[in-house]
Predict the structure.
Amino acid sequence: EPEVTQTPSHQVTQMGQEVILRCVPISNHLYFYWYRQILGQKVEFLVSFYNNEISEKSEIFDDQFSVERPDGSNFTLKIRSTKLEDSAMYFCASSEGSSGGYLSSYNEQFFGPGTRLTVL
Amino acid sequence: QKEVEQDPGPLSVPEGAIVSLNCTYSNSAFQYFMWYRQYSRKGPELLMYTYSSGNKEDGRFTAQVDKSSKYISLFIRDSQPSDSATYLCAMSAWGGSQGNLIFGKGTKLSVKP
C-alpha cells in the first residue's frame, strides 16, 4: 500500500541552526501539507502546497519557515534559524486532489510517520 | 473558546467494552468531521469521516455528529486490545484538498485483555 515517508525520523539540532525535514508524498497525490505536534499538544496545521505554491498557511508558518518541492518526489520543510520552541513532531501529509464535486466527499489526507525535531 | 475540545483521558477499559469518545467545537463553519487513530511513534491514520450531521457506521465503529450541539462522538463496540491508541478528532470546513484540518488534543485509549 502506498504511504508517505519522512526522513529523518529524529533530528537533533542546536538553536539557531537551519534544518530541512524531508517527505516523499504518495506518488499520484497533488496536495501536500505540513503539520506539527508539540509534545502533549494538538496536531497543528502549518502549510498546504499545491501546484508548486503555498495554498494556505497558518500563523505559525512565519518567515522562518519555507517549503519546497525540489523535484518530482520530495517535499521539504526548512526552518531557517531554529528556536527551542520549534521542538516538536513534524508530520507531512498528502492528498489526491479535489473531492470530485460531491459535497459529501472528503479527500483524505494521508500522514507520514513524522520527524521528531529536538532543538537544544 | 478553543476551537476543538477533546478530553485527553487516558481512558482504560476491559476488552469487549463499548467505548465512547467525543469532541466539542465552536466553529459552525465545520462541515467535515474526522476521526483519526494514532499509534505510538506513527502518524495519524483516518478511521472514518462524516459530512454534516448524522451517523456513520463501519464495522465496530460508529461516528455521530450533532451540529446543533456542536458535538461529535465515536463509539467502538466490542473493543479489542489492538484498539489501544490515541484517537484524534479533526474537523474542516472543506472536503476538498484545500481544507486544512483542525485537530482535538486526542484521547489515549487502553483496552485491557
